[in-house]
TrEMBL record:
Annotated Quercetin 2,3-dioxygenase C-terminal cupin domain residues: 164-238
Organism the protein comes from: Gluconacetobacter sacchari
Family statement drawn from the similarity comment of this UniProt entry: Belongs to the pirin family.
Domain Pirin N-terminal: start-end pairs: 17-118
A Pfam cross-reference name: Pirin_C_2
Domain of life: Bacteria
Protein name: Quercetin 2,3-dioxygenase C-terminal cupin domain-containing protein
């Protein structure tokens, strides 16, 4: 099954200095909104004005993955420390038993970011954060940003490089694909898994379906997902059970 969701079908929320495009039910976007796709519970594109902040209160049992697209953002979660995030950086807040306050704040310039919220395999545990600076473990076209599979853990291979994926408490992978016009990427998966791809930039063809910037593509029942770039394109892909 393949479903393309166009930007006009998404939820669009506005608060002071913050705009959100929501692919799944979130805050006031609940009417006819899908609730999740596999373990992917939230996928929001967030636009922040200068000196604006996006805040979350009392979140628990969630893996919050943030990927900065443009600008700079300071990420803060309780007393776990502050992280300055720049384009290409990936940040994970594993909320565990609960985070009272998490904030993503801009300075004197606007910023754009993506957030993916994943349901962990098990609830509980102390909150944790992780930071992956802009790096590329698998080459320009295929970057694994975060993973819940032990085989992808840099500690398992004793590599520990800056481009290694951040650990997740969910059986999921979050990838970034960057393709030139005419380029192709193949993402292996399993037929019983749920793949969700977001076209961040450009225009692509996925398994016979065209998708422009801002489109989300929900896929299941496939053992490989092949992406063809019709323009220079960037995608973020979540593969989960």
């Amino acid at each position: 099954m393949i479903t393309v969701r166009h930007p006009s079908e998404l939820g669009h929320l506005v608060q002071e200095g913050v705009k959100l495009d929501c692919h799944f039910a979130f805050r006031d976007y609940v009417h006819s909104a899908p609730v999740h796709w596999g373990r992917l519970r939230v996928l929001n594109r967030i636009e922040l004005e200068a000196d604006a902040a996006f805040r979350l209160d009392h979140e628990s049992a969630m893996e919050i993955v943030t990927l900065v697209l443009e600008g700079a953002v300071v990420a803060m979660a309780d007393d776990l420390g502050d992280s300055l995030l720049k384009p290409g950086d990936c940040h994970v807040v594993s909320t565990g038993d609960g985070v009272a306050l998490a904030t993503w704040k801009t300075g004197g310039a606007p910023a754009s970011l993506l957030q993916l919220w994943l349901l962990p395999e098990e609830d509980g545990g102390a909150p944790e954060i992780g930071l992956r600076r802009n790096g590329d473990r698998f080459g320009h076209q295929h970057a694994l940003l975060a993973s819940g599979f032990p085989a992808d853990d840099p500690e398992e291979t004793d590599q520990g490089r800056s481009g290694d994926p951040l650990p997740l408490k969910a059986r999921a992978r979050v990838l970034r694909l960057t393709l030139p016009v005419g380029g192709q990427a193949v993402v292996p998966t399993y037929a019983d898994r749920c793949v969700y791809a977001l076209v961040v930039a450009g225009r692509v063809e996925i398994l016979g379906h065209d998708a422009d910037v801002g489109c989300g593509i929900a896929i299941t029942g496939c053992e490989t997902v092949t992406v063809h770039a019709l323009e220079p394109s960037t995608l973020v892909v979540c593969d989960s059970d």
